[in-house]
Amino acid sequence: MNRYTPDPASTPATEIGPVDWNKIRSDFPILERQVHSKPLIYFDNANTTQKPVQVIAAVDEFYRRYNANVSRAVHILGTEATNAYENARMALARFLNVRADELVLCSGTTFAINLIAYSWALPRLRTGDTILVSRMEHHANIVPWQLIAQRTGATIRVAEILPDGSLDQDALYAAMTEDVKLLALTHVSNVLGTVNPVRAICKEARRRGIITVIDGSQAIPHRSVDIAAIDCDFYAMTGHKLYGPTGTGILWARREHWQAMPPFIGGGEMIKEVSFDGTVFNDPPYKFEAGTPNIAGFVGLHAAVDYLQPIGMDNITTRETELLEHATEELNKISGLRIFGTAPGKASVIAFLLEDAHAHDLAILLDLEGVAIRSGQHCAHPLLQFFGVGTTCRASLAFYNTHEEIERFIAAIHKVRRLLG
Ligand code: PMP
To answer: H or E element: which one contains 58?
Structure first.
């Protein structure tokens, strides 16, 4: 039996003020585009989100006015670029409620999870140890653990889900046996939209001495996330799903972890002193940031966070829930359409299949109607295997989407269905 408990670390708590969503939408120039002579309806937000002018302008200004490398040059451009990069770190730390010196800036969730795998797990795990993952993980939170299991002799155990796509928490807790050293769990599923009660789960794991790795890629864009309140060991996020540039992301861990971990990648900037007799590493977080970072990207991600904060993450959750409910209600009226993932309190991601239509055919024909959705396996083969399907379509909604777009999306599905006979 599932014991779904809303997660206080990711549920709206504050008063909802009025937001002019039409005005907000006009901040996203790409949404003005026509594709195949139809107005673009962008429903592929779980893949990547579109960028507001504020983010585009911040990146543009960086390259026009103060492009330089960070932490190296004493000239004014070098100082400005370094300040901008460190200001981004501080803004992200405030946004996620963590300490800036515990926040490693990196290229995204995939890099972040590999960093934990090679720097925390590889030196520690051995034969007889178990890595616990859930059925609903993205490949980025499965494959690095398989690679580490192969190298250490550890085994992978899978925590199963229930037919509605929620995590089977009883099974998860039963699977947390003494040999489990690490739990790798997504905060929100990129296919089902399921929001896992990570705070309660991390508490249970901590009681049993299990290290927790939370993949926040699909949580941070949709709800207010307080990493300190979740009290996990590692939290990873990718910036391009949070209205920021590609090639940006964060990995948070407590200082004790960073200090106890060897560097993942070696090179410039992560050192204090280098000689052929040995190297003294820099302090965290810099010890984990070798080489030139994506400075312009983090300037853009800082602008994204500054853009989202006045809108309010709680307002965003409310708006997206309204859109999700509308789309789900309309999709449920279409006979032969099956939705995967109906867990209570889910995020605005809808995986679906239409009887007798291949997911790719449907997506290609919807594209001709101007509707961008994703079709395929969504980097979650094991999850699709659970549902006994090879592919699905996925419509994922952001706050800038509209009820009118949902109506047009539904009309487009009806039209495509007629075409498919
Ligand atoms: N985890 C989840 C849940 C995701 O949705 C994604 C992106 N689809 C990733 C990890 C990987 O993110 P990235 O490709 O930005 O590293």
So the answer is: helix 53-61
Active-site annotation holder among 202, 232, 379, 393: 379
Sign of CA dihedral 242, 248, 249, 254: negative
Give backbone dihedrals phi and psi of 274, rounded to 5 degrees, phi first.
-130, 130
Query: Which atom of ligand 1 is nearest to 189's Cα?
Result: 3
The 10 Å Cβ neighbour count of residue 153 is 11
What is the per-residue pLDDT for 73?
80
202 in active site: no
Q: What is the CATH number of the domain that holds 70?
A: 3.40.640.10
The token pair at 341 is 């993932």
Dump the DSSP string for 39-106: E-EE-BTTT-----HHHHHHHHHIIIII---SSS--SHHHHHHHHHHHHHHHHHHHHHTS-GGGEEEE
Shortest-distance atom of ligand 1 to CA 110:
16
Mutate to test the pocket of ligand 1, among 115, 192, 218 (most ligand atoms within 8 A of CB): 218
Based on the fold, state whether residues 82 and 96 are members of the same structural domain.
yes
Q: Give pLDDT tens digits for 333-350.
A: 999 999 999 999 999 999
- The residue from 292, 308, 324 where one domain ends is 308
Q: Residue 71 has what pLDDT? A: 79
Is-contact 194 350, C-beta < 8 A?
A: no
Query: Does residue 218's CB lie within 6 angstroms of at least one atom of ligand 1?
Result: yes
What mean pLDDT is predicted for residues 13-17? 48
**Ligand 1 close to Cβ of residue 108 (< 6 A):** yes
- Rg of the chain over Cα atoms, rounded to whole angstroms, equals 22
Between CA 142 and CA 156 the distance in angstroms is 9
Which residues on neighbouring strands pair with residue 351, listed in sequence order? 340, 394
Task: Tell me, yes or no, whether 271 and 352 share the same domain.
Answer: no
Note down the domain range covering 72.
Answer: 64-308
Pairing of strands 38-39, 34-35: antiparallel
Mean pLDDT lowest for which of 67-81, 90-104, 106-120, 213-227? 67-81
